[in-house]
């Protein structure tokens, strides 16, 4: 008979440090809050998903409200930092707008749970910032940038807050829509947002792009098409004028024949 072999002992699961446990609870809470909101998520669900007892959640955060507040604050600061850095990383004002729009869309694509959480209204008693207050802070950064540009061009900088709110609102609402549809790709969405903000409805670029070289090529193509259209229109006008002149000569000749048949 073969000797009975002892089963290999199971490796002991490494015990998490307090910091690691806290991060685990934050990750789990972020996912649950994004799907169900604060009211729809229970401490029992958080503890169960983490494989711990409810007291552990209370120990780290004092309850689900405390956990929710930390999650929102983290996402709030992460997005604000991304957009602020993007505004300060470019020199040209169109580039600033492009980078800021792209930063928001990148955050949405890479941290959809975080974005779903911060777009919810802040919950009473948590002390956390809402999406509206986040946008207000971002608008404050944009306002500062616009005020400098307005002053440089001799515009009235008292309207900088209005334009800042308009620009941020346009990007933010588009971002909320794009969160679920995810089409077209984020670079194309950013390019079209900037196209409208920079050029206005009357001067939209047919094929907007974040690449300045591609924009230049497209502008050159548009210029050539405009030249061809102008030349075609000029030729049509000349043809119409010649036709009109011919008709006038015929009418004059017919009139002369009626007045003086012997002519």
TrEMBL record:
Keywords: DNA-binding, Transcription, Transcription regulation. GO terms for molecular function: DNA-binding transcription factor activity; transcription cis-regulatory region binding. SUPFAM superfamilies: Homeodomain-like (SSF46689), Tetracyclin repressor-like, C-terminal domain (SSF48498). InterPro entries: DNA-bd_HTH_TetR-type_CS, Homeodomain-like_sf, HTH-type_TetR-like_transc_reg, HTH_TetR, Tet_transcr_reg_TetR-rel_C_sf, TetR_C_32. Residues 1-20, 205-263 are annotated as: Disordered. Residues 208-256 have a biased composition (Basic and acidic residues). Coiled coil: none annotated. GO terms for biological process: negative regulation of DNA-templated transcription. Residues 42-61 bind DNA. Residues 19-79 form the HTH tetR-type domain. This is TetR/AcrR family transcriptional regulator. It holds the Pfam family TetR_N.
């Amino acid at each position: 008979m073969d000797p009975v072999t002892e089963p290999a002992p199971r490796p002991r699961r490494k015990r998490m440090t307090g910091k690691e446990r806290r991060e685990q609870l934050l990750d789990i809470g972020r996912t649950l809050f994004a799907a169900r909101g604060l009211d729809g998520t229970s401490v029992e669900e958080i503890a169960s998903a983490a494989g711990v007892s409810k007291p552990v959640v209370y120990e780290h955060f004092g309850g689900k409200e405390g956990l929710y507040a930390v999650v929102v604050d983290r996402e709030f600061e992460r997005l604000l930092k991304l957009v602020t850095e993007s505004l300060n990383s470019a020199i040209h004002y169109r580039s600033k707008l492009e980078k800021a729009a792209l930063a928001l869309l990148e955050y949405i694509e890479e941290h959809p749970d975080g974005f779903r959480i911060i777009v919810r209204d802040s919950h009473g008693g948590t002390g956390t910032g809402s999406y509206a207050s986040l946008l207000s802070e971002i608008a404050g950064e944009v306002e500062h940038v616009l005020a400098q540009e307005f002053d440089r061009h001799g515009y009235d900088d008292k309207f900088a807050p209005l334009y800042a709110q308009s620009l941020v609102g346009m990007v933010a609402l588009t971002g909320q829509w794009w969160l679920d549809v995810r089409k077209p790709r984020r670079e194309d969405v950013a390019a079209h947002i900037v196209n409208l903000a920079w050029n206005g409805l009357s001067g939209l670029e047919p094929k907007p792009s974040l690449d300045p070289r591609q924009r230049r090529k497209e502008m050159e193509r548009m210029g050539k098409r405009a030249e061809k259209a102008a030349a075609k229109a000029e030729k049509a006008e000349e043809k119409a004028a010649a036709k009109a002149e011919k008709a006038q000569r015929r009418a004059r000749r017919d009139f002369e024949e009626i007045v003086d048949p012997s002519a």
